[in-house]
Amino acid sequence: MKKFKWLHIIAFLSVLVLLLQGCSTGSSGEKENSESKESASGDKSGGNLVVVRLSDATGLDPHFITDIPSANVVHGKVYETLVAFDKDRKIVPLLATEWNQVDDLTWDFTLREGVKFHDGTPFNAEAVKVTLERLLDPATGSPQKDKLGMISEVIVKDETHVTLKLSEPYAPLLSILASNEGSILSPKSITETPDQLATTPVGTGPFVFGSWKSGQQITLNKNNDYWGEKVKVDSVEFKVVPEDATRLAMVESGEAHISDQVPVTEIDRIENSDSLNLFRTDGLAVEYVGFNTTQAPFDDVKVRQAVSYAVERQAIIDGVYNNIGTLANVAMSPKVFGYSKDIEAYPYDVNKAKSLLKEAGHEKGIKATLLTSDRKERINMAEVIQSQLKGIGVEVEIQVMEYGSYIEQVDSGKHQMFIGGWGNATGDGDYNQYNLFHSASIGSPGNHFYYQNPEVDKLIEQGRVEVEPNKREEIYKQAMQIEMDDAVYIPIRNYEHLAVYNNDVENFWLDASNYLILNEVTVK
Description:
The chain is of the alpha+beta class and 524 residues long. It is built from 15 helices and 23 strands. Strands 3, 10, 11, 12, 13, 14, 15, 16, 17, 18 and 19 form an 11-stranded mixed beta sheet that branches. A 4-stranded antiparallel beta sheet has the order 6-7-9-8, covered by helices on one side. Strand 8 and strand 9 form a beta hairpin. Helix 13 runs antiparallel to helix 14, helix 13 runs parallel beside helix 15 and helix 14 runs antiparallel to helix 15. The chain starts with a helix and ends with a strand.
């Protein structure tokens, strides 16, 4: 009771101070929202949030984004989806307030009223139809098309009701609609300025796109006309800072507030700092070494198997990642539906590796290139693998590329081996299996192995339409076993996502897909 009484006294005094300031003619009472403010209730708002990152986005059009770092700029910030994931990964309403699965092939959605896109265009059923039809139109050329390719028709019933008709059942429909691929775009932008969507996104979200200085920074501003609860900060700047040490120093000094790409070598320093805080969460992503199965000598399964036996994976977890994350057995996280612990990766066996190389006609060894992006840990991993493979006569040349160039390289198939990762955005096995291993996903959609196996394609397609969970799990288990037998990749690590932030930041978190959740963030 005493505490309650004191809170009332404090609130009264705060209001009195504000009234006195309002009567003052001094400039101190005229400061606008460029500075952090604290209301009488104690809620902080205002200010500019600075997020420092290793690499720039590769594009801002959700129908063409295929990487989490780019999606992180717009998903849930500039763009919104019909439904969303909450903190417990449960599906909740967003632009749709209700939905109903009428039958295996029919889904009805009731849309939120009073919502407008950032260009003033009303959000309605027609906007949903225009967005999805653009995604599904072959002429658009979206690498995301097949992720919602089971939608055969979008029916507008009225302004607030839309029906999705499917060509076949699709168990994880809501999870993909909640992901970046399900973003609803301004129909005006799609019709009038479609070529500008890659650089000028227009959505309904709590942030409005401000500017993009390529290679330097992207700025988002607070949407003061947002339909829901408004964000606390006035703006967010995503700044590109390639040097790990510089990013950390900027956060520590207050020049920046958050970095979501934390060097594992700096964990002890962060945890021992009085001004830095570390956010850690188990992720849905997996890191692996992949083979381009169409490029010699890795078009031979025996060569791929030989290299798989020669990589000591636990040494990478221990030595490169300081045990951040766990040893992976497949290219699917244990947190993803469809994962199986029963699939066994190739054990470390140098003699077996040498024997397989000999059987493949490479007794004198081979030369190969290993492509990686410029993340410090991946470069270190590449160097460890280079050393390990030397022991079986495989001479590895490491190619390090800036992230955007790396993506272009693997999308075009101009690589032999590569260090990659797949950040599952839905928590469902279809997002892994279809995008990584189905022949329809070769290239930019995600199949950078250039892997084609009709039996695997068939299983993945069965997994998409099967509605019984136990049967789906068994289907994915069969597919993953074939992929392992074919030695398409070497599983390395189940992600643990990290972010560092300073004491000026409150209410920040990362979700399991590694998205920055900024809606309630405040800065001092």
